[in-house]
Hints:
Number of helices: 4
Order of helices and strands: HEEEEHEHEEEEEEH
Amino acid sequence: MLNFDLPRYLPSAEELPDSDETPVDNELQELIPGLLKAMLLLLWEERMDWFFGVDMGIYYHPDKPAIVPDGFLSLGVERFYDEELRPSYVLWDENVLPILVLEVVSQNYRKEYSDKLHDYEALGVLYYVIYSSRRRRKPHLEVHKLVNGKYELQSGNPVWLPEVGLGIGCERGNYCGVTREWMYWYDELGKRYLTPQEQVQQAQQQAKLAEQRAQQEAQRAQQAAQRAQQLAEQLRALGVDPDQLS
Length: 246
């Protein structure tokens, strides 16, 4: 149960603004969290206890503006809010903090290492993930974990998140026809899960191989039938009835 110093009257998600009308200034801010969500939709297809928001406001107080990360993950909540899509994520309705928030650093610095870090720290978000492809000397991906009220940078790529049951990392790949470094989910051994597009391609390849094997089997069966027919004709030419040999 979340404990906030809140007024008695608490507006619902429908009463709160669901957009600050501020457009993103970097396409990656949409594509990267969108890819992570698309992967989860397949990985956790049977689960209904999680929610991944993309560019959605997190309300922690009715009189204060929402915090809007590029992406966030909550566990232990309903996939759909009142059987509909959430207009925003309201903490006093959900009673569950996001376990992970993601910020994709854009061309314009948006206080990812100052105000936003302190805001997520104060809320108690367990994992704060920052991705920036513009760094030259530092890793593009940073995973910070809340330890005793302060964020500590985690080492490795990917980074295993035991509370989530997944790892998160980045590597070069292709998504939406663009070949570059992308963020992905990983298993505990560090093996990357396939994207939806890769799963479709894999299924198509498997279907093609199965079709090829079926064609080869049919070809071999036809060849065997032809050899049997030729042998039977040879026996008849020698005066032997092949039907009497069985």
